């Protein structure tokens, strides 16, 4: 379970980075207001996901309270999904 949580957090971090990279390189295909909203959604989702993924990784690394680490990683997955979809 420890490795599963750590792999889940790593995949989420990869997807988050990919979404940020896509937003910065290609920009949103919308008007200026749409680009601003997309950038705001990505920024907020990135901050919240990072705040959830860091403790999840740390708790899993120390092999304590794995249910808490898994819960944090699953909640962070929602915000990673928001960031990935907003960058399209």
What does this structure look like?
The protein is an all-alpha fold and 88 residues long. Helix content is 86%, strand content 0%. The protein is built from three helices and no strands. The radius of gyration is 14 Å and the shape is elongated. 31% of the residues are buried.
Main traits of this protein?
3 helices, 88 residues, mainly alpha, elongated
Question: How are the SSEs ordered, and which strands pair?
Answer:
Elements: H1 2-26, H2 32-61, H3 66-86
Helix pairs in contact: 1-2, 1-3, 2-3
Oligomer: single chain
Instruction: Count the E strands.
Output: 0
The major sheet is characterized as:
none
How far apart, in Å, are the first and last alpha carbons?
Answer: 32 Å
**Count the helices. How many?**
3
Brief synopsis:
By secondary structure, the chain is mainly α.
């Amino acid at each position: 379970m420890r490795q599963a949580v750590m792999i889940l957090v790593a995949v989420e971090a990869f997807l988050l980075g990919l979404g940020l990279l896509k937003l910065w390189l290609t920009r949103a295909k919308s008007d200026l207001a749409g680009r601003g909203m997309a950038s705001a959604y990505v920024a907020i989702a990135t901050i919240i996901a990072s705040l959830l993924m860091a403790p999840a990784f740390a708790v899993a690394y120390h092999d304590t309270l794995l249910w808490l680490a898994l819960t944090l990683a699953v909640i962070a997955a929602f915000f990673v999904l928001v960031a990935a979809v907003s960058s399209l």
